[in-house]
Q: What sequence folds into this?
């Protein structure tokens, strides 16, 4: 079967992966309302295309924290990629580099920061979970810096792990032949079997529930890397994040895996953008499966988007080639959407190019 869009990788991955692994990647928290909503909310935005504009040349390039990338489509941190494919994060890193975009490496990767750096050049960010033992955190941040990572994406929505019922049913645990490579030398790389989810038990034992804004300040004392706050959904937290020194904000509901019944990120985006007032860039992850979705996010004020599940599913099906193809398909769709909307560069994409179901009724002149 010829794959013509990134969503088709999901069913192929389901057929290929062990159930425990597929369910870990695919599922959300509790009723999975937010998981469905992350996708569905995009269907509530329609286009207002402008016509008769010369779109023979389209420039999708942009800069993120001063780094030039080929398109505003980047790779979100997804954990334990070697469960999907033996090359795991190595393959993803090479695919991102080939596409001229940014990869974010998860703290819970099955390849270390040093191993990922060894795949060759590329702009990479490091996603950070804050452990109870701050020496572990400081060590990890220093290693990421030394390995050439350019920013820290601090996950702030996980003082406890969301209730992911598929993982409980499957007694999810990291397969014994894999480790959380960044923690291997610290005796934190293995995950014990548990009576529910092995990951939930691991998080309860290791991740710091006391994490607060003062820790964002602390992080700035141990690193000069810019800090992106990942997991913001409200105007209030946007303002605090900026006051605390965040270099950027990622509007994220953790792939709908934490608190169920939070809004879709595309619904929360505009509130955050308005509160940021252009002081820092705002990014989005969650539910992006089409180039049209990328355009909608940018029209609502995002500086770029991150994709997670399409990466692990394409990785599972075709390894590095799959991730390259997924990125290329999204790029091609986004370019086409820009052309058909009459936009030649990202700065030409405006709020006037879309209408959302939640907008007030448009003023229509009397005919």
A:
């Amino acid at each position: 079967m010829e794959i013509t869009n990134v969503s088709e990788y999901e069913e192929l991955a389901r057929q290929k992966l062990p159930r425990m692994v597929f369910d870990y990647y695919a599922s959300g928290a509790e009723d999975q309302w937010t998981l469905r909503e992350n996708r569905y909310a995009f269907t509530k935005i329609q286009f207002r295309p402008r016509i008769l504009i010369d779109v023979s040349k389209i420039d999708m390039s942009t800069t993120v924290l001063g780094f030039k990338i080929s398109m505003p489509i980047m790779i979100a941190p997804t954990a334990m990629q070697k469960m999907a494919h033996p090359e795991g994060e190595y393959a993803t890193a090479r695919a991102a580099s080939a596409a001229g975009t940014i990869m974010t490496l998860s703290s819970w990767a099955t390849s270390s920061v040093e191993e990922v750096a060894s795949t060759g050049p590329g702009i990479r960010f490091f996603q950070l979970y804050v452990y109870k033992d701050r020496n572990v955190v400081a060590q990890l941040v220093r290693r990421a810096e030394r390995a050439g990572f350019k920013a820290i994406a601090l996950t702030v929505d996980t003082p406890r792990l969301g209730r992911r019922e598929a993982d409980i049913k499957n007694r999810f645990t990291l397969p014994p032949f894999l480790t959380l490579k960044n923690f291997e030398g610290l005796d934190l790389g293995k995950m014990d079997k548990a009576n529910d989810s092995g990951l939930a038990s691991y998080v309860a034992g290791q991740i710091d529930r006391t994490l607060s804004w003062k820790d964002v300040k602390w992080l700035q004392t141990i690193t000069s890397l810019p800090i992106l706050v990942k997991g913001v959904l409200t105007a209030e937290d946007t303002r605090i994040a900026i006051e605390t020194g965040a270099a950027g904000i990622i509007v994220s509901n953790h792939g709908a895996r934490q608190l169920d019944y939070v809004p879709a990120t595309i619904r929360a985006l505009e509130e955050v953008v308005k509160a940021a007032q252009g002081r820092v860039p705002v990014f989005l992850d969650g539910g992006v499966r089409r180039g049209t979705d990328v355009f909608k996010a940018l029209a609502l004020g995002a500086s770029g988007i991150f994709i997670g599940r399409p990466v692990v599913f394409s990785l599972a099906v075709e390894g590095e080639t799959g991730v390259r193809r997924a990125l290329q398909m999204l790029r091609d769709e986004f370019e086409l959407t820009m052309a058909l909307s009459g936009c030649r560069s990202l700065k030409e994409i405006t709020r006037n190019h879309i209408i959302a179901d939640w907008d007030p009724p448009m003023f229509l002149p009397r005919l």
